Amino acid sequence: MEIIQIVGLGFVVTLLILIIRRERPELAVQLSLTLATIIFLLVLNKVNVVLNLFRDLAEKANISHMYLNTILKIIGIAYITEFGAQVCRDAGEGAVASKIEFAGKVLVMVMAIPIIALVLDTIVRLIP
Questions:
Q1: For the segment 17-56, what is each residue's pLDDT rounded down to a tens digit?
Q2: pTM
Q3: Using CA atoms, how far apart are residues 128 and 122, in angstroms rounded to an integer?
Q4: In angstroms, what CA-CA distances link 2 with 9, 32, 33, 79, 122?
Q5: Of 10, 88, 92, 93, which is least packed with CB atoms within 10 Å of its CB?
């Protein structure tokens, strides 16, 4: 199972960071960023499988690609925002992490406007 490898790698790097942080804090941050990149690359292939599955399901359900792409972009924004914020927190920059989260929330809201408009339009059509 890949998750066991990822968690094991995370434990090893965490121990290294704890040891290195006292002497060379800048190296500890670089090590943390490297781990984040490695984990991201390891799961990227799995994300591609999920995206292909969503596309196949959308075709079978006859859902417009515009709406599917919007939903996938929103999910991507949420994951990337969380990832970026956590990296900033790991580096001790909680204020920057908060700003990244705020920007992510605003972008999700903006991206959701077409879907919200479609839902409201559908509700208005259903009400006599």
A1: 999 988 998 898 899 889 988 988 888 888 888 888 988 9
A2: 0.73
A3: 12
A4: 11, 19, 20, 19, 43
A5: 92
pLDDT tens for 85-120 read: 998 898 789 999 999 999 999 999 999 998 899 889
Nearest Cα neighbor of 105 from 84, 122, 126 is 84
Structure tokens at 6: 């990822």
Cα–Cα distances (Å) from 14 to 10, 11, 66, 97, in that order, read 6, 5, 42, 20
Q: Which two tokens stand for residue 76?
A: 């991507």
Distance CA 4, CA 8 (A): 6
80 C-beta neighbours (distance < 10 Å), count = 14
Residue at 58: amino acid letter: A
Q: Are 80 and 26 in contact (CB under 8 A)?
A: no
